[in-house]
Amino acid sequence: MDRRRFLTTMTVAGVAGPFAGVACAGRQGGAQAAPSGYGPLRPVPDLRDGKVRLHLPDGFSYRSFSAAGEKFSDGGVVPGRHDGMAAFAGPGGTAILVRNHEVGGAVGAFGDRERAYDPMAGGGTSTLRVTRRGELVRSTPSLTGTMLNCSGGPMAWRAWLSCEETVNGPDVADAPGGAGNARLTRKHGYVFEVPLGRAATAEPVRAAGRFAHESAAFDPSTGAIYLTEDNFSHPSGFYRYLPPRHPMLAGRLLDGGRLQMLAVADADRADLSAGQPPGAAYAVEWVDIDDPDPGFRARTPYDEAVQAVGRQGRAKGAAIFARLEGAVYHQGTVYFVSTQGGDTSPADPMPEGFGKGRGQVWAYETWSRRLRLVYESPRAAVLDLPDNITVSRRGTLVLCEDGDGDNYLRGLTPAGRLFDFCRLAPISGDPGAEFAGSTFGPGGHTLYVNVQSKQGRSFAIWGPWERGLF
Fold first, then answer.
1. I need a surface site. Which of 5, 38, 259, 381 has the fewest CB within 10 A?
2. 57 forms bridges with which residues in the sheet?
3. At 371, phi and psi to the nearest 5?
4. E strands of 78-172, at which residues?
5. pLDDT digits (tens, 9 = 90+) for 106-133
6. Contact, 99 vs 82, CB < 8 A?
């Protein structure tokens, strides 16, 4: 099997776990559809207004809700750039969603500016209560004044960790294509906790690092928070934050812990961004980050600031990845995505940014301290730049694509089968629209997901899940 095809055989420490010992054939041609776990995809009208926004298998329905520009329940305006999201059980069979808004620039905070972390920053989160069929019950701002809130992760103590994918601030010069850092009042690049039962404090967990954060995954056995870094133009790292007290005992994530970065044992600065051989697996160790919250001299170049934390880890031998994005914890394993990991197929153009491939899925086994490759895309027609991920009750991963052409929600089963579940219908005037924030609601009845576009909206999808692989 080609080295850029699916991992054929993998057993770690004599135990075959999920995604171990699997094979996947992938697509044989750029125009040929991958096999679907639920059947062919067809255009389905949105139950909200009858417009076709998604293509789904037979028997599935959806409703969109809480689009950008609409009103919150308190009358404020819903911001755009819907991104990472988590679902929690709500009263009466509803779901409580906490949703990121990846808004950049010094455009001013939405919601109550007096409670904002930085009144000049336009990102943050909203909290929504919805039915299993996407009927919006209530929506409010929950964290405001943050910036470029890309993803994060649900926490077992009923909280969402929201992550800023930037290091902007008044001490940093404007990033390429950006503007307004001099108007910001606070440093950015942090993790923020958004609890369900009380108001967000809008105070960052500074010891968890100031870097281009993406996702967060919680290991309940140790209390560690695993963090991904999406540094678009530079190498990225895989981190863990060890809080001073187990969050389940503290009831929240405490500041003042220790930040570490993954390194491959006996391999200094191992480059895992490149194409990997079949069966790739590595013993790992963790190196400490001595200064997780660096301050900078006035107007430090953005490219220098955004690498300040990662360079500390790589100086001690930490591994190199290409754009780490989605992460999820499942049964002792943290699955995470390297969006541009791997090699570029001769049939595909070279992607912009750091990394030459069309995507990798990695698994870090917390119990064995082993890292293994789960999947590497052979070409864009099979899997094109995976981003956010979640996991179903059956252990199947849901991959949100952020590719150059049609974008899909794809499933990757524990047996290694990759299939198409949903395709995003083209959005007029916005070819860059993408899926983000997939999360299953209570009981697995509904898959909630966002479409990040120039506006953005959320969706509830339901149907005969038992018929297929989710």
1. 5
2. 41
3. -115, 130
4. 82-89, 95-101, 123-130, 136-146, 149-155, 159-164
5. 999 999 999 999 999 999 999 999 999 9
6. yes
- pLDDT score at 18: 59
Residues 6+ apart with CB under 8 A from 3: 275, 276, 277, 278
Spatial separation of the C-alpha atoms in residues 419 and 157, rounded to whole Å: 33
The whole-angstrom separation of Cα 399 and Cα 429 is 25
pLDDT of residue 454: 82
Tokens at 388, concatenated: 């956010």
Query: Is the model's pLDDT at 28 over the cut of 60?
Result: no
Place of tokens 């001490």: 171
What are the beta bridge partners of residue 99?
A: 85, 126
DSSP state of 216: E
Give the number of other CB atoms < 10 A from CB of residue 354: 19
Instruction: pLDDT band for 31, please (50, 70, 90 cuts).
Output: very low
**Residue 82 identity (one-letter amino acid):** H
Token pair, residue 47, equals 């139950």
Rounded to whole angstroms, the Cα distance separating 462 from 444 reads 9
Q: In whole angstroms, what is the distance from residue 130 CA to residue 89 CA? A: 10
Render 3-22 in DSSP notation, one character per residue.
TTS------BTTB--TT-S-
Which residue reads 């390297």 in tokens? 338
* pLDDT per position as a tens digit, 242-259: 999 999 999 999 999 999
- The tens digit of pLDDT for each residue in 360-408 reads 999 999 999 999 999 999 999 999 999 999 999 999 999 999 988 899 9
Pair type for strands 446-452 and 434-440: antiparallel
Tens digit of each residue's pLDDT (9 = 90 or more) over 410-454: 999 988 789 999 999 998 888 889 999 999 999 999 999 999 988
Tell me the CATH architecture of domain 41-467. 6 Propeller (2.120)
Under 8 Å between Cβ of 121 and 141: no
Q: Which two tokens stand for residue 202?
A: 């809008």
Alpha-helical (H) ranges within 201-301 are 247-250
Distance from C-alpha of 266 to C-alpha of 35, rounded to nearest angstrom: 40
Cα gap 237→323, rounded to integer Å: 8
Sign, Cα dihedral of 372, 416, 360, 167: negative
- Encode 360-391: b = buried (16+ Cβ within 10 Å), e = exposed: bbbbbbbebbbbbbbbbbbbbbbbbbbbbbbb
Beta bridge partners of 461: 62, 447
**Helix or strand run (H / E) with residue 391:** strand 386-391
